[in-house]
């Protein structure tokens, strides 16, 4: 248990299935954060660092006018209120305590991103850039009720226990390159096709369910970096999906690597 907040069943699900969920953030805080994005970031016409490409780019907008390229690390953007988003969230709920329970020790935020919408993301595994052999926990916090056509987050429960063989490693490499649009010595189209084919083979040999939890404002999903996950492509007219994505690693890794999370 974490200060009476996280139920034993939620911790058990994380251990057994590689993910869990909780009603985490007060709706009033969700509204505050959304309004901050809409007031300071949405009207901005200049470039901002983007989570998927690691490049400074202007907003990419959907046909419904939603920003589809998530803003990386709000605390580093320099906007007066938006740069305090992560702090606001952590002060309003026991986020860090929950992560530290699931991580079995002190945690440090490695990176974060703000989504208003997306173009959908391919199924992939997260990558701990400091030490690939050490765990990393992803947290997806819904800042509004996420409709069924808004591009919901999904995952394959139990996929953290799949064998880490050569096929999985090849899939992970190709899927990560497609997810982050980082194709060094790789052909983008061929990489995506091969990754999808490998995933189909893996799931044929190891059938696993697919879950796309219906999240209401303040709900959070926690998963280990060994869990297959992604997000559905939104449908025009399906609404926005204001969300905050955070990744946490063991605090000692950040200290050893001499990195700063702020």
Strand percent estimate: 15-25%
| Poorly predicted segments | none
The whole-angstrom Rg is 18 Å
At the third CATH level, what is the topology name?
A: Jelly Rolls
CATH superfamily placement: q2cbj1_9rhob like domain
Question: Helicity, in percent?
Answer: 25-40%
Shape: globular
Structural class: alpha+beta
Could you explain the architecture of this structure?
It contains seven helices and eleven strands. It has helices spanning 8-17, 27-41, 85-92, 95-103, 166-180, 188-205, 251-257; strands at residues 19-23, 48-49, 56-57, 71-72, 107-115, 121-124, 136-142, 153-155, 219-224, 229-231, 243-250. A six-stranded antiparallel sheet has the order 1-9-7-11-5-4. A hairpin with a 6-residue loop joins strand 2 (48-49) and strand 3 (56-57). The model has no long low-confidence stretch (mean pLDDT 92).
What brief labels describe this structure?
6-stranded antiparallel β-sheet; Jelly Rolls; about 260 residues; alpha+beta; 7 helices; 11 strands
Please describe the topology of this protein.
Elements: H1 8-17, E1 19-23, H2 27-41, E2 48-49, E3 56-57, E4 71-72, H3 85-92, H4 95-103, E5 107-115, E6 121-124, E7 136-142, E8 153-155, H5 166-180, H6 188-205, E9 219-224, E10 229-231, E11 243-250, H7 251-257
Antiparallel strand pairs: 1-9, 2-3, 4-5, 5-11, 6-10, 7-9, 7-11, 8-10
Summarize this, please?
The chain has helices spanning 8-17, 27-41, 85-92, 95-103, 166-180, 188-205, 251-257, and strands spanning 19-23, 48-49, 56-57, 71-72, 107-115, 121-124, 136-142, 153-155, 219-224, 229-231, 243-250. With 262 residues, the chain is an alpha+beta fold. The strands form 3 sheets. Strands 1-9-7-11-5-4 form a 6-stranded antiparallel beta sheet. A 3-stranded antiparallel beta sheet has the order 6-10-8.
């Amino acid at each position: 248990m974490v200060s009476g907040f996280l139920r034993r069943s939620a911790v058990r699900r994380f251990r057994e299935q590689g993910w869990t969920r909780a009603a985490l953030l007060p709706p009033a805080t969700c509204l505050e954060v959304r309004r901050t994005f809409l007031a300071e970031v949405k009207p901005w016409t200049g470039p901002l660092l983007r989570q998927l490409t690691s490049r400074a780019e202007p907003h990419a907008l959907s046909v419904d006018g939603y920003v589809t390229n998530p803003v990386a690390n709000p605390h580093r953007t320099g906007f007066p209120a938006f740069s305090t988003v992560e702090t606001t969230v952590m002060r309003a709920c026991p986020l860090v305590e929950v992560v530290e329970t699931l991580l079995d020790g002190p945690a440090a935020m490695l990176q974060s991103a703000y989504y208003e919408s997306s173009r959908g993301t391919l199924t992939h595994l997260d990558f701990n850039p400091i030490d690939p052999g050490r765990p990393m926990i992803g947290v997806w916090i819904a800042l509004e009720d996420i409709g069924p056509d808004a591009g919901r987050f999904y995952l394959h429960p139990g996929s953290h226990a799949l064998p880490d063989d050569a096929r999985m490693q090849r899939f992970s490499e190709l899927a990560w390159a497609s997810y982050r649009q980082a194709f060094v010595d790789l052909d983008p189209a061929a990489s995506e096709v091969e990754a999808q084919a490998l995933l189909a083979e893996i799931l044929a040999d190891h059938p696993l369910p697919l879950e796309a939890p219906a999240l209401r404002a303040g709900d959070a999903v926690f998963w280990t970096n060994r869990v297959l996950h992604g997000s559905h492509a939104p449908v025009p007219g399906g609404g926005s999906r204001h969300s905050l994505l955070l990744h946490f690693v063991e605090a000692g890794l950040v200290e050893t690597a001499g990195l700063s999370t702020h």
